[in-house]
Design brief:
Aspartate Aminotransferase, domain 1; Aspartate Aminotransferase, domain 2; about 375 residues; alpha/beta; binds glutamine; 12 helices; 13 strands; globular
Length: about 375
Amino acid sequence: LSERTNHFTESVIRHMTRIANSCGAINLSQGFPDFDPPAKLQNRLAEVAHEGPHQYAITIGAKNFREAVCKKQEHFSGLRYDPEREIVITCGSTEAMMITMMSVCNPGDKVVIFSPFYENYTADTILAGATPIYVPLSPKDFSFDANVLEDAMKEPGVKALILCNPSNPSGKVFTRDELKIIADLAIKYDLYVITDEVYEHIVFAPSKHTYMATLPGMRERTIECSSLSKTYSITGWRLGYILAAEPIMERIKKVHDFTVVGAASPLQEVAVTAMNFGDEYYRDLQMHYTHMKTLFTDGLRNLGFKFSEPQGTYFVMMDISEFAKNGIIDDNKFCIDMAQKVGVAAVPGSSFFRENVNNLIRFHFAKKDETIIEALNRLENLK
Ligand code: GLN
């Protein structure tokens, strides 16, 4: 069997969902909402069920959907992408990242990844024949050392850096100054920056999201991956996209075609409606997520838990050092016990870190008030 598949494990996030389901725990591990998507999308879905389309869209995505995504992107970032040449609609950002890596990397290339990181990046890198090299973010405030980053980026064979912003699992939103450091190094060492910006609209004031591609010199070397999953609460629709300059996109289009042919055409048709939502939709989303974050983190604080305040995303990392036994903390065992005995599932933090960090666990809070409140009631039993 494939040697490559020896070098990464199954997703611990998805594994925790299976454990949560098997013991009936509230699933605060794999991030997805337990509330409905916007009613306008549900209604449009019902219409499209009768009107179609039901056959393949053109491989790179239905023309009206590509145009609508490019228009929405221009509205938020000011960047104009050509809907015929500079976008591919994918099956979620998961496909977007995988086919980007396959299109960019040669065997033996290296890819720089900040740690902690979303698990998929390691598997994507290895499946693309490349080798990940990790740059640690401080587990305290998730800052990075620019010299350590430069040392990694200037290693021979480095082809790209992966940037998840806002960042899963840390909840960090990279500032413009931090992005500038990364961008300047990418230009200096002639690297691509592959972004995962699926949480672009889940940012808590006063933090603000800056698109990497808007930094000077970055439009041509940024490959932006994003998705509709989080912004419109439709993780099961598997709709994402890649925005990049034409020479890069020509390669990506081929890999996309031979990998999946295309994303679901009826869902692309429905999603055009989402792309036409006005600014108030995004303001309400921001308010809703701020409410959920406040409810959950106030609850954790009241219970006396330590955690780092997220600036964006729907994740929070909690410190479980107080549960050490004889000085040892096993975050994997802790999460399994918590799911089985307390009835709340989280993801063991060590699955996100390259370094030996095992005192953190990741919760997500994209849940109805009653789910969050019940989870907090159960977490009281940890004490
Ligand atoms: N990004 C979400 C998480 O980290 C879920 C992604 C997935 O499982 N596809 O939990």
